[in-house]
Amino acid sequence: MLNKGNAATIRAAVEALELTGGETAADIGFGGGLGLDLLLAGTGESGRVHGVEPSGDMVTRARRTHAAALADGRLELHEAPMEALPFPDGTLDGWISLNTIYFVADLAPAARELARVLAPSGRGVLGVADPDWMASQAFTKHNFTLRPVAEVVATLEASDLTVEDRTLTGRMPYHLLVCRPTR
Questions:
Q1: Domains, the chain, with CATH or none
Q2: What's the predicted TM-score (pTM) here?
Q3: For the chain, does the N or the C end have fewer beta carbons within 10 angstroms?
Q4: Sorted alphabetically, which keywords does the UniProt record give (predicted)?
Protein backbone atom coordinates (compact mmCIF):
# COMPACT_ATOMS: atom_id res chain seq x y z
CA MET A 1 0.00 0.00 0.00
CA LEU A 2 2.81 2.42 0.89
CA ASN A 3 4.48 1.75 -2.45
CA LYS A 4 1.32 2.07 -4.55
CA GLY A 5 0.02 5.27 -2.96
CA ASN A 6 3.39 7.01 -3.02
CA ALA A 7 4.92 5.64 -6.24
CA ALA A 8 4.75 8.86 -8.26
CA THR A 9 6.33 11.00 -5.54
CA ILE A 10 9.03 8.40 -4.80
CA ARG A 11 9.93 8.24 -8.51
CA ALA A 12 10.04 12.03 -8.72
CA ALA A 13 12.29 12.22 -5.65
CA VAL A 14 14.76 9.69 -7.05
CA GLU A 15 14.75 11.51 -10.42
CA ALA A 16 15.53 14.78 -8.61
CA LEU A 17 18.75 13.21 -7.27
CA GLU A 18 20.01 13.00 -10.89
CA LEU A 19 21.91 9.77 -10.23
CA THR A 20 24.40 8.70 -12.90
CA GLY A 21 25.67 5.46 -11.34
CA GLY A 22 28.25 4.59 -8.74
CA GLU A 23 26.85 6.85 -6.01
CA THR A 24 26.13 6.06 -2.39
CA ALA A 25 22.51 6.93 -1.66
CA ALA A 26 19.96 6.34 1.10
CA ASP A 27 16.23 6.13 1.56
CA ILE A 28 15.60 7.48 5.04
CA GLY A 29 12.29 6.12 6.27
CA PHE A 30 11.95 3.65 3.38
CA GLY A 31 8.56 2.24 4.39
CA GLY A 32 7.38 -0.18 1.69
CA GLY A 33 10.77 -0.25 -0.04
CA LEU A 34 10.03 1.13 -3.53
CA GLY A 35 12.61 3.87 -2.98
CA LEU A 36 15.24 1.23 -2.27
CA ASP A 37 14.47 -0.45 -5.60
CA LEU A 38 14.64 2.82 -7.51
CA LEU A 39 17.88 3.88 -5.80
CA LEU A 40 19.45 0.48 -6.55
CA ALA A 41 18.55 0.94 -10.21
CA GLY A 42 19.76 4.54 -10.26
CA THR A 43 23.12 3.93 -8.59
CA GLY A 44 23.83 0.93 -10.82
CA GLU A 45 26.01 -2.10 -10.19
CA SER A 46 28.86 -0.03 -8.74
CA GLY A 47 26.65 2.00 -6.42
CA ARG A 48 25.65 1.40 -2.83
CA VAL A 49 22.26 1.98 -1.22
CA HIS A 50 21.35 2.31 2.43
CA GLY A 51 17.88 1.98 3.87
CA VAL A 52 17.23 3.67 7.20
CA GLU A 53 13.99 2.96 9.01
CA PRO A 54 12.92 3.39 12.65
CA SER A 55 10.48 0.47 12.40
CA GLY A 56 12.03 -2.92 13.09
CA ASP A 57 9.08 -4.59 11.34
CA MET A 58 9.79 -2.69 8.11
CA VAL A 59 13.50 -3.54 8.32
CA THR A 60 12.63 -7.23 8.75
CA ARG A 61 10.29 -7.07 5.76
CA ALA A 62 12.95 -5.36 3.64
CA ARG A 63 15.49 -8.04 4.56
CA ARG A 64 13.15 -10.58 2.96
CA THR A 65 12.14 -8.56 -0.10
CA HIS A 66 15.66 -7.28 -0.87
CA ALA A 67 17.65 -10.40 0.01
CA ALA A 68 19.58 -10.46 -3.29
CA ALA A 69 20.77 -6.83 -3.02
CA LEU A 70 21.76 -7.44 0.61
CA ALA A 71 23.66 -10.61 -0.34
CA ASP A 72 25.64 -8.90 -3.10
CA GLY A 73 26.56 -5.99 -0.81
CA ARG A 74 24.77 -3.27 -2.78
CA LEU A 75 22.21 -2.68 -0.04
CA GLU A 76 22.61 -2.20 3.68
CA LEU A 77 19.68 -1.75 6.08
CA HIS A 78 19.75 0.19 9.34
CA GLU A 79 17.19 0.47 12.11
CA ALA A 80 17.62 4.05 13.27
CA PRO A 81 15.70 7.31 13.64
CA MET A 82 16.29 10.30 11.38
CA GLU A 83 17.74 12.18 14.34
CA ALA A 84 20.66 9.70 14.64
CA LEU A 85 21.73 8.57 11.18
CA PRO A 86 24.34 5.77 11.17
CA PHE A 87 26.78 7.40 8.71
CA PRO A 88 30.00 9.38 9.00
CA ASP A 89 29.91 13.03 7.96
CA GLY A 90 29.57 13.70 4.23
CA THR A 91 29.28 10.09 3.09
CA LEU A 92 26.03 10.18 1.09
CA ASP A 93 25.92 11.44 -2.48
CA GLY A 94 22.15 11.52 -2.17
CA TRP A 95 19.24 10.73 0.06
CA ILE A 96 15.48 10.73 -0.18
CA SER A 97 13.07 10.94 2.72
CA LEU A 98 9.36 11.11 1.94
CA ASN A 99 6.44 11.42 4.32
CA THR A 100 8.73 11.01 7.31
CA ILE A 101 8.83 14.33 9.13
CA TYR A 102 5.22 13.96 10.29
CA PHE A 103 6.61 11.53 12.86
CA VAL A 104 9.60 13.60 14.00
CA ALA A 105 8.82 15.60 17.14
CA ASP A 106 11.72 18.08 16.83
CA LEU A 107 12.66 18.75 13.22
CA ALA A 108 15.87 20.73 13.87
CA PRO A 109 18.04 17.77 15.03
CA ALA A 110 16.77 15.65 12.11
CA ALA A 111 17.57 18.45 9.63
CA ARG A 112 21.08 18.78 11.06
CA GLU A 113 21.58 15.03 10.58
CA LEU A 114 20.33 15.17 6.99
CA ALA A 115 22.79 17.98 6.29
CA ARG A 116 25.66 16.31 8.15
CA VAL A 117 25.63 13.08 6.15
CA LEU A 118 25.36 14.74 2.74
CA ALA A 119 28.57 14.98 0.69
CA PRO A 120 29.61 18.51 -0.38
CA SER A 121 28.42 17.84 -3.94
CA GLY A 122 25.44 15.74 -2.81
CA ARG A 123 21.73 16.28 -3.02
CA GLY A 124 18.85 15.26 -0.78
CA VAL A 125 15.11 15.29 -1.36
CA LEU A 126 12.65 15.69 1.50
CA GLY A 127 9.06 15.04 0.44
CA VAL A 128 6.01 16.42 2.22
CA ALA A 129 2.38 16.66 1.23
CA ASP A 130 0.76 20.05 1.40
CA PRO A 131 -0.10 20.56 5.09
CA ASP A 132 -3.54 22.06 4.34
CA TRP A 133 -4.45 18.99 2.31
CA MET A 134 -3.02 16.71 5.01
CA ALA A 135 -5.08 18.47 7.70
CA SER A 136 -8.24 17.55 5.78
CA GLN A 137 -7.43 13.82 5.94
CA ALA A 138 -8.87 11.78 8.81
CA PHE A 139 -5.74 9.60 9.17
CA THR A 140 -3.57 12.59 10.12
CA LYS A 141 -5.51 13.11 13.35
CA HIS A 142 -3.44 10.30 14.91
CA ASN A 143 0.20 11.06 15.74
CA PHE A 144 0.96 13.26 12.70
CA THR A 145 2.80 16.54 13.18
CA LEU A 146 1.93 18.87 10.31
CA ARG A 147 4.18 21.84 9.64
CA PRO A 148 3.92 24.71 7.15
CA VAL A 149 6.28 24.12 4.21
CA ALA A 150 7.94 27.49 4.87
CA GLU A 151 8.80 26.31 8.40
CA VAL A 152 10.31 23.08 7.06
CA VAL A 153 12.36 25.02 4.49
CA ALA A 154 13.58 27.46 7.15
CA THR A 155 14.64 24.57 9.39
CA LEU A 156 16.57 22.92 6.55
CA GLU A 157 18.21 26.22 5.62
CA ALA A 158 19.21 26.79 9.26
CA SER A 159 21.03 23.44 8.98
CA ASP A 160 23.27 24.73 6.16
CA LEU A 161 21.24 23.44 3.25
CA THR A 162 19.93 25.36 0.28
CA VAL A 163 16.41 24.32 -0.63
CA GLU A 164 14.50 24.33 -3.90
CA ASP A 165 10.77 23.66 -3.50
CA ARG A 166 9.43 21.66 -6.46
CA THR A 167 5.66 21.41 -6.19
CA LEU A 168 3.98 18.39 -7.75
CA THR A 169 0.32 18.30 -8.62
CA GLY A 170 -1.87 15.25 -8.77
CA ARG A 171 -4.29 13.67 -6.34
CA MET A 172 -2.74 15.93 -3.69
CA PRO A 173 -0.37 18.91 -3.76
CA TYR A 174 3.10 17.66 -2.83
CA HIS A 175 6.44 19.35 -2.19
CA LEU A 176 9.82 17.90 -3.07
CA LEU A 177 12.34 19.97 -1.13
CA VAL A 178 15.59 19.48 -3.03
CA CYS A 179 18.48 20.16 -0.66
CA ARG A 180 22.15 20.88 -1.32
CA PRO A 181 24.88 21.68 1.21
CA THR A 182 25.92 25.31 1.52
CA ARG A 183 29.44 24.28 2.58
A1: 2-144+160-181 (3.40.50.150)
A2: 0.93
A3: N
A4: Methyltransferase, Transferase
